[in-house]
Every structure is written in structure tokens, then in C-alpha cells.
Design a protein that fits this description.
The complex is a heterodimer of chains A (264) and B (358). Chain A is mostly helical. Chain A has 2 domains: 1-33; 37-257, Orthogonal Bundle (MetI-like fold). Helices cover 78% and strands 0% of the residues of chain A. Chain A is built from 13 helices and no strands. By secondary structure, chain B is α+β, with helices and mostly antiparallel strands. Chain B has a 6-stranded mixed sheet, sandwiched between helices. In chain B, strands 13-12-11-14-20 form a 5-stranded antiparallel sheet. Chain B has a 5-stranded antiparallel sheet with strand order 15-19-16-17-18. In chain B, strand 4 and strand 5 (66-67) form a beta hairpin. The longest helix of chain B is centred in the middle third of the chain and has 16 residues, at 168-183. Chain B starts with a strand and ends with a strand. The chains are: A mainly alpha (264), B alpha+beta (358).
């Protein structure tokens, strides 16, 4: 509080902070104290559990890579160029952040079903109810986060550094790779971490587009949902704990990468 | 256009609502041109346009006879240095200096390495090569920035207020360095500044900008002493800008300062009627007492109202037919023996009275 005593306002916000922090920590810690740890260890050898963990890691890695590879150029374009209707386009790109994932899922299902389904089927590249659908849904809900964070990173770059590089002989592409990316590296890594976290936790849109099929499109959130519906609470809690630890690790990575996110 | 290093013709550049209007000038191969004007007048925009960083709406830029109007910046190969010695924070001093050479694939060229060695020694930054920009002073950053800009020996160096963020002592050092670098020859310099003393000290020629237009160009001392426009006279620190009436008498132009002296015959001309004129403080002559002037039309009586002792001269403010600032040397001031309230006679040679357009 800075000074001894403090005002009523300072005490009030201190108490609210304490209550909020306690509530969040208590709720999350129940996940760690509740499980039967013996069952937890045996689950590590359970094929379904192992599939869910590895499938989640694999699909989210691909979706994150895709979101980074599409999100960074899109964000750079938005940060550096003006065009008619830019505000509307930028808002549309951020829309999936605001939408309930189920709505995104319905849009994806229509797009890859009735709209593109025939073409994709002919190419033997079905999206709906396949692992590709899982990745597509994860990408769709995560890329707007990426664009938002990457764009903020590019907008903090002193444009004179990019212009200076042009006068020193760098083409626009070389300026991007040798100046802009180097200046924003930490923020972009932080953004990529946020994207990964978003893909990892995605359930609604994935369920709509790829379905929840055991050992086929079963991500960790899908495994939690499936097993809690079937009454295998230990399995669901074990999967939740794994997700909690993953999220914690990602958050730590975010704190390391993002400027100003180090905290105290 | 032959023989000119740079020829700019009726250049128009539009950025938002601001516009560079029909900017035209030429400069020779070894010329040091200073572009001077207040903040927001378009100096930096002009420099960026010359560097190829801004899209030109109309007009042309020729460099050594080649048109560069739409050539991208990376192909112009001009040296460029920004205010506050902008360096790449992720690179060491050495990497910063070699940053342009690297783009051209000359990073390990023996000739470039040799020149870098000579430059860093000359600029006193040899001991800083492994440091990051965050550990450099403002003057050191500016030296590194200059070394980077001239490493590949450009024929034209563009400087955007390179001294404005420095303390007076460092500024003097970098001024000396710029003079030295330019004196070697083979490189023209366009130096943007808002400090007319810097422009006078460094530039062979000077261009005064106002609201996107070039108000006056010419040899530095010529522009300083004869700014031609009211704006340029004010911006260049004109001490005595007086209002009066311009008149033709027997085919000669005279300027009547209302309630003050009548000045002339003058070499310049204005349309008859109300106008302005500039007399530099150093061009007014002062004698103690009244009525000692030998040339009545260009002399008048006044009383000393204030005396300000500066670092380089003494400014004596006088009241009589207006308020006048007279600059005298320390020895002259001592010999005049003046104090506040003393009667004086002020005189001026007609050739030192410069008529100003609005």
C-alpha cells in the first residue's frame, strides 16, 4: 500500500484483490488435491488418456504453427498499410474472439460441409469429423488472438528503424525479416504462446466441426467431457490436471517472452 | 542540370492533409546544404522524399543526371542519419556500422573493413565496437550513426536534425566532425535543422522552409543577411524588423520608418506602400551623443534603454523612432562608455537595409 494505514479505498481494493486471488487459487487447487493419485499413475498407461494428450499436443502444435504463419503476415499488413474499410476488416478478423465457440463451430461446419464439402470429398480431404477438422477449428478460434497481439507488437516498432534499413539497402522483405521480426521477437513469441494456449483449451468449435469421437478426434477437453459424461470422474480430473499444468507452463513462457509481463 | 549532384524540380508530396508544394532546388557535388525551418514545416518530409521513403505526387528528382523520382530507397544508396542517432538495439556497435554493408553483401569486404577501421578511429568509437546501443551516450550514438551512414562512401548524405538531441558540448564536437567529413570532398550533404546558427556554421548554402514551401534558397550568408521574406527574416533571428512605407523618389527606392528614420536609396524594391525591412543588429552603427551622424537620411537619434552582455557581443537596445537592437563588440562597447539613458546616434549604410516581402 505504500504508506502505513492507507485510505478506505486502498483497504477496499486490497480486500477485493485478496478475495479474488484466494477464490481463483482455491478453485484451481481442488484439482490437485482431489484426484486419486494411484489411479492417476495408472492412467498414464491408459491408451485413451495417452491418445488424448498426444493428439492435443499434435493438433495444437500444427494449429499454432498455422496461426503464427498466417497471423504474423496478416497482422503486419494491418499494422503497416491503410486501405478502405480497414476498420471493418480488422473488426471481422477479431470477431471469433467475441463469438461463443459454438457459433464459430456452426460457421465452420457449414463452410466445410454444405459449401466446400463436395470439393473436399472429391479430393479425399474431408475436414468434417476428422483430425483435420480439429486443427481447422483450433486455428479458426486462435488466429484472431494472434493477429491482435502480433499487430500490437508491430505497431510498437519505431518506423524510422525500418525506413533507415531501406536507405541502407534492404528491400521491404529483408526489412521485415532482418529488422522488424528481430525487434518484435519477444512479443511475437509471447503471442504464439497465447495462441497455443487458446488452441489447447478449445472445445466448442472443435466439437461442432470434428465431433467427439473416442480415440479419433479426442482432444484433452473432449476427453474430459466424454469421461465425465460416462461417470469416469478420475479420468476427467486427471486430464484436467494435465491441462492445468500445461496452461501453467504456457503462462510461465508468456511471462518470460512478453515485454512487461514479468510481474514482481 | 549537368554538373549538379541533385536537382529537384517542382516536387509535390502529400501526406494526410500536409503537402510539400513545388519544392525546387539544385546542389553541387561537394555542397553542404542546410534546410532550415520551424517544426512541422516539412523539412523531414523533404528529406524522406529525397531518400525515396515517400511517394511523390508530382515533380522530379535527378541525381547525377539520372532520374530517381520513383526509385526505391534501397537502390538510391544515399547515406541517411536520423535525429538521436537511431541505432538497432539488437546489434552491437560494429554490427550497426556494418548493417548497410551487410545488405549489399560487403560485410566482409577488405576495403569496407579497412574503411570501417579508419572511420571508427577517426570518430573515437574504436573502443565501443562490442557494446550495445543501450550503453552509449547520445554523442556516441550519433557518431556510430554517422559512421554507418558513410561507411559505403555515399555521394549524398542526408542528415535529419543530427545535433538536436545533444548537449551543447557534444553538439560542438559533432559539428566539428561533420565539417571534417565534408571537407574531404566527394560527398554532398543535406542537413535538416531548426537551428540557424548550426546552419550558418556548417552550410555552404541554405534553404528556408515554411508550411511545405521553400521560401528562400542561396548561399548561407546571403540568405542570413538578406532573407527576402518576412517569415525568413523572423525565423533567422532578424533583430530589427521594422514596418514602414516603401516609396519611389527620383527613380530610387526609399523606406520611411513611420516616426523614425528615412532609409535609402535602397538596392532592393517593393511595391509602393506599407512594407517591412530588416537591419541586422551588427549592421547598425552607434555613436555617443546626438547629431554626430554625417549622413542624415540614414541616421537618427535615440536613447539607450537596455544593455545586454552576451557571450560573443554586447547588445545595446535603443529607443528612438522605434526600438532598435545594436550589436557591438566588447572593445567597442568599452570605448563608447554607454549606460542606460545615454543619448546616442544610430546610423546604417543603405546597402544593409533589406526590404522584405510578406
Amino acid at each position: 500500500m505504500g504508506r502505513r494505514g492507507g485510505t478506505v479505498f486502498q483497504w477496499a481494493i486490497g480486500l477485493i484483490f485478496g478475495f479474488t486471488a484466494l477464490a481463483v487459487v482455491l478453485i484451481l487447487s481442488t484439482l490437485l488435491f482431489h484426484p486419486d493419485w494411484g489411479r492417476f499413475v495408472s492412467l498414464a498407461r491408459d491408451p485413451e488418456f495417452r491418445f488424448a494428450v498426444l493428439f492435443s499436443l499434435g493438433t495444437t502444435a500444427v494449429a499454432t504453427a498455422a496461426a503464427v504463419l498466417t497471423g504474423i503476415p496478416a497482422a503486419y499488413f494491418l499494422a503497416r498499410f491503410d486501405f478502405p474499410g480497414k476498420v471493418a476488416v480488422a473488426s471481422a478478423l477479431e470477431l471469433p474472439i467475441m463469438l461463443p465457440p459454438l457459433v464459430s463451430g456452426i460457421a465452420l461446419l457449414i463452410f466445410f460441409g454444405p459449401v466446400l464439402g463436395g470439393v473436399l470429398a472429391k479430393a479425399d480431404w474431408d475436414i468434417v469429423f476428422t483430425y483435420r477438422g480439429v486443427i481447422a477449428a483450433q486455428w479458426f478460434v486462435a488466429v484472431p488472438f494472434g493477429i491482435k497481439v502480433f499487430r500490437q507488437a508491430f505497431e510498437t516498432v519505431d518506423l524510422r528503424l525500418e525506413n533507415l534499413a531501406r536507405t541502407l539497402g534492404y528491400t521491404p522483405a529483408k526489412v521485415f525479416f532482418r529488422v522488424t521480426l528481430r525487434l518484435t521477437r519477444r512479443s511475437l513469441l509471447g503471442g504464439a504462446t497465447m495462441v497455443w494456449a487458446r488452441t489447447l483449451g478449445e472445445f466448442g468449435a472443435v466439437a461442432m466441426l470434428a465431433g467427439i469421437t473416442r480415440m479419433k478426434t479426442e482432444t484433452l477437453p473432449a476427453a474430459i467431457f466424454l469421461n465425465i459424461s460416462l461417470g469416469d470422474v478420475d479420468f476427467a480430473i486427471a486430464a484436467a490436471v494435465v491441462m492445468l499444468l500445461m496452461a501453467f507452463a504456457l503462462l510461465m513462457m508468456l511471462k518470460v517472452f512478453m515485454p512487461g509481463e514479468h510481474g514482481q | 542540370m549537368s554538373g549538379a549532384l541533385l536537382a529537384v524540380n517542382a516536387l509535390n508530396v502529400l501526406v494526410g492533409t500536409f503537402r510539400l508544394h513545388d519544392v525546387s532546388f539544385t546542389m553541387g557535388g561537394d555542397e553542404y546544404l542546410t534546410v532550415i525551418g520551424p517544426t512541422g514545416c516539412g523539412k523531414t518530409l523533404l528529406l524522406e522524399s529525397l531518400a525515396g521513403l515517400r511517394r511523390v505526387a508530382s515533380g522530379s528528382v535527378f541525381f547525377l543526371g539520372w532520374e530517381l523520382t520513383r526509385t526505391p530507397p534501397e537502390k538510391r544508396r544515399f547515406g541517411y542519419s536520423c535525429q538521436d542517432g537511431l541505432l538497432y538495439p539488437f546489434a552491437t556497435v560494429e554490427e550497426n556500422i556494418l548493417f548497410g554493408a551487410r545488405a549489399q553483401g560487403l560485410e566482409n569486404d577488405p576495403a569496407v573493413r579497412k574503411r570501417m577501421g579508419e572511420l571508427v578511429e577517426r570518430m573515437g568509437i574504436g573502443g565501443l565496437l562490442e557494446r550495445r546501443p543501450g550503453f552509449l551516450s547520445g554523442g556516441e550514438k550519433q557518431r556510430v550513426s554517422l559512421a554507418r551512414a558513410i561507411l559505403t562512401a555515399p555521394k549524398l548524405l542526408l542528415l535529419d536534425e543530427p545535433l538536436s538531441a545533444l548537449d551543447p558540448c557534444t553538439r560542438a564536437e559533432i559539428r566539428g566532425l561533420l565539417r571534417d567529413l565534408h571537407s574531404e570532398g566527394g560527398m554532398g550533404v543535406i542537413h535538416v535543422t531548426h537551428d540557424f546558427s548550426e546552419a550558418l556554421e556548417l552550410g555552404d548554402s541554405m534553404a528556408v522552409m515554411n508550411a511545405g514551401r521553400m521560401e528562400r534558397t542561396g548561399p548561407s550568408m546571403d540568405v542570413f543577411l538578406k532573407p527576402e521574406t518576412l517569415f525568413a527574416a523572423r525565423f533567422l533571428g532578424g533583430e530589427n524588423i521594422v514596418k514602414g512605407m516603401a516609396r519611389w523618389l527620383s527613380g530610387e527606392m526609399w523606406f520611411d520608418v513611420g516616426g523614425g528614420p528615412v532609409l535609402g536609396p535602397l538596392s532592393g524594391s517593393l511595391p509602393e506602400g506599407a512594407g517591412s525591412a530588416l537591419i541586422r543588429a551588427a549592421h547598425l552603427r552607434l555613436s555617443a551623443g546626438r547629431g554626430s551622424a554625417s549622413c542624415p537620411p540614414n541616421s537618427w537619434e535615440a536613447v539607450v534603454s537596455d544593455i545586454v552582455i552576451g557571450s560573443a557581443r554586447v547588445d545595446i537596445y535603443c529607443q528612438g523612432g522605434g526600438r532598435w537592437q545594436v550589436g557591438v563588440s566588447f572593445s567597442e562597447w568599452r570605448s563608447l562608455g554607454l549606460s542606460t539613458g545615454a543619448p546616442v546616434t544610430i546610423s546604417v549604410f543603405p546597402e544593409d537595409v533589406h526590404l522584405l516581402r510578406d
